[in-house]
Amino acid sequence: MLFVYEVKTKKREELVDITNYLLDAVEKSRVREGIAIIYCPHTTAAITINENADPTVKEDIINFLSHLIPKNFNYRHLEGNSDAHIKSSLIGSSETIIIKDGKPLLGTWQGLFFAEFDGPRTRKVYIKIIEG
Fold it and tell me: Is the peptide bond preceding residue 41 cis, with omega within 30 degrees of 0?
């Protein structure tokens, strides 16, 4: 089953908690055992799993990536968002999560995040649930 969700970002760079989209897709699928593939079809955004208890972790990730890959550098791409493309490639466009007993197997502190690097925008996230 394929589920499509919309994410509206508010900043140029931010991590948006989309764990509820995953929980919704797993529940609607009624799959008890399987996998969920979460995919972002955008070249300046990404999907990641990280701590979901302390919001400063999200800030630290964004701040460190901005330090590591600055917006203003001698990039050749003319649109002015090369840093966003690089960050997206480093983080990755998808995650795969095991489903057991009808629940995604996330760790105690883990959450699923949409990583925006060139917002604000309205984006899509695809979640494919595979039984097995």
Answer: no
